[in-house]
Amino acid sequence: MKSPWFRHAGWLYVPTSVPGVAAYVLAVLFCASVFRAVDAHSHSVSDTLYGVFPFFVCTFLLLDWVGRRTSDGSDARRR
Fold this sequence. Notes:
By secondary structure, this protein is mainly alpha-helical. About 60% of the residues lie in helices and about 10% in strands.
């Protein structure tokens, strides 16, 4: 039997294994690099927020999807 990568906790999925932690670390590193790249060419805070928003939303929606697919199944009410 496969061990679950995540555990459902409220609105979030908490990593419970090494692949889950790796997914979180990769998502945060990607978002940090996108932020640095966008912020380097922005002239204001709103430019930065508008630039990073699509990347952050897509990244964390993908992380939520992975969390839902690889969790222990305790989130049956969400399906």
